[in-house]
Design brief:
This protein is an alpha/beta fold. It contains 6 helices and 11 strands. The strands form 2 sheets. Strands 9-8-7-10-6-1-4-5-11 form a 9-stranded mixed sheet, sandwiched between helices. Strands 2-3 form a two-stranded antiparallel ribbon.
């Protein structure tokens, strides 16, 4: 079984994002970019499935500018076998990404697609769900456990207030939540080996997908500065403030 893992290049999670002076978006020039953290978890899960013998090949795919090759190389260094870059300068939105991934699924016929539950730049949390809908496949979102075998996937989902266990018919789309695993660091020999692994470059046009954005960003602003807190003398004053000032009790 082949596993397809989409990996997005995003502003590194350690970087404090700054809004551009013209309020059209966030600053990405001269900013450290990395693989979306939930996608690292997705790659790790795919590599573990391959190590257990449940998968035979892992294909990492990234959609975006030429530098997304670096993100693909990171996935290859973690254990993916080959990469596909769908090169475009358009800032793709989830529906366009899902359509591109559907076209790739039709070409590559994977048994499983494992995405991150959300990208930390747009926080959309939509792509996996849209892909499953477009393909008509079963979906297991926000998963914290996965067991694959015998034409089915047993997954545990993180839902509000607890966990949900599902059995999915394969092929299926999974999206990785934080507790699924702890991604490995790529070792130096594996980083060297990854340089020799193949990356194919495609375009949205070649896949017959229109990636024109459907949603326009009107304005991006910093969140309002938090006001300084105050000290209370004791419980009575705290209760009084909660009741009469904050009006929350
Ligand atoms: P989102 O729906 O934007 O929050 O993204 C959810 C997941 O879809 C991410 O964690 C990635 O696995 C995948 N994804 C979204 N955009 C891209 C992209 N440009 N390239 C590769 N994968 C992507």
């Amino acid at each position: 079984m082949k596993i397809l893992v989409p990996v997005k290049r995003v502003v590194d999670f350690n970087v404090k994002v700054r809004v551009k002076a013209d309020h059209t978006g966030v600053e990405t020039a001269n900013v450290k970019m990395s693989m979306n953290p939930f996608d690292e978890i997705a790659v790790e899960e795919a590599v573990r499935l391959k190590e257990q013998g449940a998968a035979s090949e892992i294909v990492a795919v990234s959609i975006g500018v030429a530098q997304c090759q670096e993100t693909i190389r990171t996935a290859l260094a973690m254990g993916a076998d080959r990469g596909i870059l769908i090169e475009t300068r358009v800032e793709t939105q989830p529906l366009a990404v899902a359509k591109l991934l559907k076209a790739l699924v039709e070409r590559e016929s994977p048994g499983l697609v494992i995405l991150g539950k959300q990208a930390i730049d747009d926080d959309c949390n939509q792509t996996g769900q849209m892909l499953a809908a477009l393909l008509g496949w079963a979906q297991g979102t926000f998963i914290s456990k996965a067991k694959i075998g015998d034409g089915k996937a047993e997954v545990v989902r993180e839902v509000d207030g607890g966990l949900e266990s599902l059995v999915l018919k394969m092929p299926a789309v999974l999206t990785a939540d934080l507790r699924l695993n702890e991604p490995r660091y790529a070792s130096l020999p594996n980083i060297m080996k990854a340089k020799k692994k193949p990356i194919e470059t495609l375009t949205p046009e070649a896949l017959g997908v229109d990636v024109t954005p459907r949603i326009a960003t009107l304005k991006v602003e910093e969140p309002p500065k938090r006001k300084a807190g105050g000290k209370v003398a004791g419980v009575a004053e705290l209760v009084d403030k909660l009741k009469n000032e904050a009006k929350v009790i």
